[in-house]
Amino acid sequence: MRRMAAKAPAAAPQTAATGADFPRSAPAAAPAEAPAGTPAGPPAGPAAPAVEAAPRQELRTEFPFELPRGYVDDSGTVHRDGVMRLSTARDELIPLRDVRVQENPAYLSVVLLGRVITRLGTLPSVHDGIVENMFASDLAFLQDFYRQINAEGHTRAAVACPHCSEVFEVELGGSRLGES
Fold it and tell me: What would the DSSP string read from start to end of 118-129?
């Protein structure tokens, strides 16, 4: 059985007694058996109002970024813009079997980033060999970016203007180190 997170409709708040931990996706089930002598079919009485389906919230799984320095390939081309996808449990478990990671745990982030970076500039593919040849500042940027999108779920932050105190959100993903 697969559970998916969904937002409960605002008009129907739930309490602990009605299963607040689980969003309601369908009306309560009918009793298993109708009492003897009761006709089968829909219940008598006023018809229940039609419940509108809550709008589906789209899950963002890929996030663009721009490296602070850029990866330089064998021909001297600099690749700076790329895309990282959300990590799966498999992405985090498989590198643990890698001999390089077992010998040197610091290598884990290199192998992991090689799995979740889906595009970098015009390179045909991205793998751990590409990541291990990046500049240290780019590796640090990617490690931080990975944490932002996987641990926190998004790359937005609420900030307040120091002059007018108006609160708004800024997108941190894709920004370059040292820029605000």
Answer: EEETT-S---HH
- The helix or strand, by DSSP H or E, that contains position 145, with its residue range, turns out to be helix 136-151
- Tell me the β-bridge partners of 157: 170
pLDDT category of residue 46 using cuts at 50, 70 and 90: low
**Core vs surface per residue 60-75: b (16+ CB within 10 A) or e:** eeebebebbebbeeee
pTM of the model: 0.56
Q: Are 1 and 22 in contact (CB under 8 A)?
A: no
The span from the CA of 158 to the CA of 172, in Å, is 10
At residue 131 the predicted structure's pLDDT band, cuts being 50, 70 and 90, is: very high
